[in-house]
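Worked example 3 (structure in, sequence out).
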């Protein structure tokens, strides 16, 4: 009788802040947390895919700005992580994987680790789980198993994996790997597709903790002292593990491919052919959304008239987007920014972000909704000496006890009930009621109810920036 496989420990990488899906994906709220496809974010779909029988709770690596988003999105799908590691700075995949490896190796050297980005789309969960199980024996035997996607077209946006002579790109078991191949130009991508022994590099890896720990000792020993120092100096913080900033900041910015995989001899590749996308650009989103007979995809309040091979997407309920006579076009409309490009040029979106950064436009990096540990807010109107916001406070959540040097605030509750503190007065403010917070008053807002509380805030004053906050108490331990 075959012995059951050990638990797979998912390592979810959720710290990236890519811009190829701007304006929906921005530095303050990147694509893994957005609902690009369906009612769940890519991060939630990834966590759900790697859960259930055979999986341990996930270890999540993310950044300071995203830690509460991770907790909130996991809670929304009723999942609890094994741990959440906070990376003080982005340092690419090798340091992140090394930190998770060292932690798990100390607990169980034979722990079977699955490293996966949290922004990929894999529709057939059962097929993917079967593929993981088929790859597990090789990982348990001491190989570093990478996953390769059977290519569907000559893609220039992915790295490739070249199979060794005699290997089968359609096999249902791990195959020998010859080498990693950098992202090709169009001609080379077409040649590799025709050759039949190349796979897309999915950036997904399966190995035991002891195998990867030994790989770091052999191929990237300079990384380990900094990793060990960052772990030794890590501090618990509201359920998170905050890695020590100084040693982490001194680590190299290097991918696991460069640091380990391209130097290792104990490699195998597991082919996968049941549907996968890293949604690395709007053209990929267009393809995965399922274009109609004319090649057109409309999402949200978007409409097409005589359009072909076009993606029209409105991300604002009150913004109607209409395309007429378009061909090979991507148009993505949000409340504060609109992208219009040829679909074939959608990989150039990073140029738009660079242009906006140069002009110091906040749209380059800041999402219209500012997500906080207690909920979110968005600016509706901004004037010279006033600003109107919509604020949504989660059930049981509380803003910090704070004051402002330069502004006063008027709060009008439109949904739910708020418990409001203004200096020494605490009172409940219900729907259609309002309260005034004078300049300099020490105040706090809480949602004592079981449903989200929504209010409209009108700020008036000489300066309305988010840095005009003096915090006295904060349940989320923000400075």
């Amino acid at each position: 009788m075959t012995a059951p496989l050990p638990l797979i420990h998912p390592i979810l990488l959720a710290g990236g802040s890519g811009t190829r899906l701007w304006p929906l994906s921005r530095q303050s709220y990147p694509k893994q947390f957005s609902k690009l496809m369906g009612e769940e974010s890519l991060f939630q779909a990834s966590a759900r895919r790697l859960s259930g029988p055979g999986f341990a709770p996930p270890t999540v690596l993310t950044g300071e700005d995203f830690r509460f988003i991770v907790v909130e999105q996991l809670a929304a799908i009723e999942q609890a992580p094994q741990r959440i590691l906070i990376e003080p700075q982005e340092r690419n995949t090798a340091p992140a994987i090394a930190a998770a490896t060292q932690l798990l190796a100390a607990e169980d050297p034979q722990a079977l680790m699955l490293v996966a980005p949290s922004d990929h789309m894999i529709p057939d969960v059962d097929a993917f789980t079967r593929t993981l199980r088929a790859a597990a024996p090789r990982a348990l035997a001491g190989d570093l198993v990478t996953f390769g996607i059977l290519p569907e077209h000559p893609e220039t946006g992915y790295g490739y994996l070249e199979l060794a002579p005699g290997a089968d790109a359609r096999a249902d078991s791990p195959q020998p790997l010859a080498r990693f191949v950098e992202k090709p130009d169009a001609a080379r991508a077409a040649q590799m597709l025709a050759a039949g022994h190349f796979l897309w590099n999915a950036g997904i890896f399966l190995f035991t903790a002891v195998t990867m720990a030994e790989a770091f000792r052999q191929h990237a020993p300079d990384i380990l002292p900094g990793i060990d120092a960052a772990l030794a100096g890590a501090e618990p913080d509201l359920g998170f593990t905050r890695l020590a900033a100084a040693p982490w900041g001194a680590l190299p910015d290097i991918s696991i491919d460069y640091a380990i995989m391209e130097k290792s001899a104990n490699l195998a590749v597991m082919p996968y052919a049941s549907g996968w996308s890293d949604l690395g650009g709007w053209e990929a989103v267009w393809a995965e959304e399922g274009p109609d007979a004319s090649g057109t995809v409309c999402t949200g309040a978007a409409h097409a008239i005589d359009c072909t091979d076009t993606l029209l997407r409105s991300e604002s309920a009150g913004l109607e987007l209409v395309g007429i006579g378009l061909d090979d076009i991507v148009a993505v409309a949000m409340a504060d920014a609109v992208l219009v490009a040829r679909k074939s040029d959608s990989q150039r979106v990073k140029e738009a972000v660079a242009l906006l950064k140069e002009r110091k436009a906040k749209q380059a990096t800041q999402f219209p909704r500012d997500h906080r540990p207690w909920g979110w807010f968005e600016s509706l109107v901004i004037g010279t000496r006033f600003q109107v916001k919509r604020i949504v406070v989660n059930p049981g959540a509380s803003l910090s006890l704070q004051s402002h040097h330069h502004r006063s605030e008027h709060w009008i509750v439109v949904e739910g009930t708020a418990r409001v503190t203004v200096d020494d007065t605490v009172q409940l403010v219900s729907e259609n009621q309002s309260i005034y917070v004078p300049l300099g008053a020490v105040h706090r807002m809480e949602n004592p109810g079981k449903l989200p509380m929504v209010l409209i805030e009108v700020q008036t004053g000489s300066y309305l920036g988010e840095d005009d906050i003096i915090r006295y108490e904060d349940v989320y331990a923000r400075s």
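Notes: Residues 125-140 form the longest helix (16 residues). The chain has eleven helices and 28 strands.
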